[in-house]
Amino acid sequence: MTLTKGGQLLEVKDLKVTYAGGAAAVRGVDLSLAAGQKLGIAGESGCGKSTLALALLRLLPPGAKATGQVLLGGEDVLAMKWGRVRAVRWAGASIVFQGAMHSLNAVHRIGDQIAEPIVLHKQATPAGARRKARELLELVGLPGARAQAYPHELSGGQRQRVMIAMALACDPALIIADEPTTALDVMIQAQILRLIEQLVSEQDVGLIMISHDLAVLSDTCDRLAVMYAGRIVEEGPAREVYEAAEHPYGKALSAAFPRIGDPGSRFAPRGLPGDPPDPSALPGGCTFHPRCPVALEVCAGQDQELRVAGPGRQAACVHVGAAEDARSGS
Question: Domain 8-101+169-276 adopts which CATH fold?
Answer without folding.
Answer: Rossmann fold (3.40.50)
